[in-house]
Amino acid sequence: MSNQTFILILSGIIGVFSGLAAVILKQGVHVIQNFLTEGFYKEYANFLYIIYPLIGISAAFILGKFIFKDTGGHGVPDILFTISKKQSIIKRVKTYSRVFTSAITVGFGGSVGLEAPMLVTGSAIGSNVGSLVHLNAKKRTLLIGCGAAAAISSIFGAPIGGVIFAIEVIMMEISTASFIPLLIASVTGSLTSMILIGKDSVFNFKLTENFEASHMPYYLLLGIVCGLVSLYFSQAVRKTESLMESLDSQLLRILYGGAILGIMVFFLPPIYGEGYDTLNTLIDGNSSQLLEKSPFFSVIENPYLIIIFLAFIILVKPIAAAVTLGAGGSGGIFAPSLYVGGILGFLFAYSSNLFNFTIPLPLAHFTLVAMCGVMAGAQHAPLSAIFLIAEITGGYELFVPLMFVSAISYVTKTAYQKDSIYMIQLKEKGRHLPESKDQELLELITITNVIERDLLPIHPDSKLKDLISLVKISKRNIFPVVDQHKALRGIVTLDDIRDIMFDREKQDVVLVKELMHSPPEILLATENMQKAMEKFELSGAWNLPVIEDGKYLGFVSKSRIFNAYRKRLIKQKQD
C-alpha cells in the first residue's frame, strides 16, 4: 500500500469517529436541555435558571479536573499551539474528555458552543491515530486537520465549510495531496452524522426569497456594523476572561461565574446554551416568541421591546460566553460569534422595516449574512464563514452578499485589531505563533543547538604573547576574553592585533584587556532564533557571543544558522 493510500484510509476512519463523537455530543446536550427545561417559560418564571449554570460549570470542572485531568477552556487556540510547538501531539484523554464536559456545560445553560470541543475531540482523534501508526509531525498535522474538518462538517452538515475551516484556521499550509484527505474526512464525518440522526442540521430551514441587487447598499452598511460588532465581541470576551482570571481561587471563579451567568440567563433566556433555536425562531419570522421565554416580558406585545431585548442579547452574549469559560466550563466561542451575528442581522433588518427607513429587507437573508460577517471578523475566517452559511442555506442564493459582507466586516475589524480572537488569547498567555513559514522554520532551531565552542578564550590579564600563542593553534580569528568566573569581558579579533603582534617589546607589556572591545551584540541562550536573526541584522555582525546566566557559552555564526535552516527545509520537503 502506498503512503498516500494509507493516509486516505486513515482520514476516512478519523471522519467516522469524529462524526460519531459529534452525534454523541449533540444528542447528549439535547437530552440534558430537554430534561431540565421542558415545560418552562409560559407557565411561570423558573428560578432554576439561576442555579442550572452553576451546577453545570461545577460538574464540568470537577469531572475535567479530577477524573479526566483535562480542564475546559478554549479549543482552537490550544490546537494551534499544539501544532506549532508540540509536534502535533495531543493528549489521548482529549479524544473523549471534552465530549462529556462540554455536554454538561452547555446542557445546563453554559452560554458557549459545541464546535470548539468537537474540534478538540476531532483533532485529538487525528493526532492519536497518527501517533498510533508512527507518522511524523507533518502527517499528524494533516490528520488533525482531517479531524477538525470532520467535526465542523458533522455538526453543521457542511462538508465544504469543514474543509475550508480546517485549511483557513487550523493548518498553516496545504497542497493538493493533503487536500484530498480533508475532503474524505469531512464527507465521512457528515455522512456518519446523517446516518445516525438524519439530515437535520443546527439550522432547519430553506430560503424562499430571492436575492435582490437593490439590497447591496444595505449589505454594505451591514458589513461595517458586523466588523464593529466583531471587534466588540473580541474585546468583551478578552476583558471578561481577564477579569475572571484575576480571581485567585477557582472556587470563587465557579461561584461568581455561575451566579452571574444564572442571572443573565434568568433575565435573558435566549442566551441559554448555544442559542441556535433562537436563530431558527427569528429566521422563521416568529420573533414574538422570544419574549414568551422571558418571565418579565412574555405578556407584552411590543415590537420596540423586541428591539431592546435583542440589543441587550448582543451586548450580553459575549460576556456570558467568556464567564462560562472563565469559570471553568468547557466550550468555545465559535457558536456565540454566529449567534451574535444572527441576532445582529435580524435586528438590522427588523428595525429598518419597522421604521420604514428603506425598502423592505428580508429578515432571513440579513440574519444569515450577518452570521457570516461577525464570524469572518471575530475569527478572521471569511472563507469558512461564506461556505458554511452557503451550505446551511441549502444553496448559493446568498453567495454574493455573503462574500461582500464578510469582506467588509473583515476589513473593518482588522483596521482596528489585526489579530483574530484566537491569536489574542494565545498572546495573552505568552504563546506566540509563527506568522510565516520562514519564522516557523527558524523557531525549530534553538541557539544552544548551533553554538560553536571551538573559539579559544583568554583571560583579560593575559599578555599579548599569550594571545599570539593561541593565534598559532586557533582556526578562528575571534578570541573571547573570559575571566575566572567565566564571564565574557570582551572580544579580540585578529585585526585588532595585526599591527603589533610581531613587536617583541609589546608582547611582554601589552595586556589583553587593553586590546579587547565589546562585541556588537550579545545573544542570550534563552532567546528564540527570530530574535537572534534580528540582532544579526541590526549589528551587521557575522558572529555573536552567547551568554547564559552571565556566563560565556560560545559563539553563533550566521553560516551555522543558514546551514541548520537549510537542513530543516530539506527535511520538511522530504516529509
Describe the 3D structure.
- With 575 residues, this protein is mostly helical.
- It has two domains: 3-429, Clc chloride channel, CATH 1.10.3080.10; 437-574, CBS-domain, CATH 3.10.580.10.
- 64% of the residues lie in helices and 5% in strands.
- The chain is built from 25 helices and five strands.
- It has helices at residues 3-37, 48-68, 76-85, 97-107, 115-132, 137-156, 159-170, 176-197, 216-245, 250-267, 276-283, 289-292, 303-327, 334-354, 363-379, 382-392, 399-416, 421-428, 437-443, 464-473, 494-497, 504-509, 512-515, 529-539, 558-574; strands at 478-482, 488-493, 523-524, 543-548, 551-557.
- The protein has a three-stranded mixed beta sheet with strand order 3-4-5. Strands 1-2 form a two-stranded antiparallel ribbon.
- Strand 3 (523-524), helix 24 (529-539) and strand 4 (543-548) form a beta-alpha-beta unit.
- Helix 7 (159-170) packs antiparallel against helix 16 and helix 14 packs antiparallel against helix 15 (363-379).
- It starts with a helix and ends with a helix.
- The model has no long low-confidence stretch (mean pLDDT 86).
- Pfam families: CBS, Voltage_CLC.
- It is found in: Membrane.
- This is CIC family chloride channel protein.
- GO terms for molecular function: chloride channel activity.
- Keywords: CBS domain, Chloride, Chloride channel, Ion channel, Ion transport, Membrane, Transmembrane, Transmembrane helix, Transport.
Keywords, separated by commas or semicolons:
5% strand; mainly alpha; Clc chloride channel; two-stranded antiparallel sheet; 5 strands; CBS-domain; three-stranded mixed beta sheet; 25 helices; 575 residues
